[in-house]
Amino acid sequence: MNWQLVIKIAILIISIHATLSGQEMYPGDVNNNGIVNGVDFLYLTNIYDKEGSVRTDTNTTYNPITAPTWNGVFPNGVNHSFGDCNGDGKISNNDIQDGIIKNFNLQHGNIQNDNFDSSGIKGTHPTLLFVPDAANSSNKLNISVSLGDSNLPVDNFYGLTFKISFDSTHIPSETTPSGKPRVSFALANNLWFANLPTSKRHLVTTKTQNDKVETTIAVGKVDDSEEDGEGDIGEFTIITVDVDHFRTAGYPFTISDVMLIDKAMNVIPVHVEIVNN
Ligand SMILES: [Ca+2]
Ligand SMILES: [Ca+2]
Question: Considering the entire predicted model, what is its pTM?
Answer without folding.
Answer: 0.91
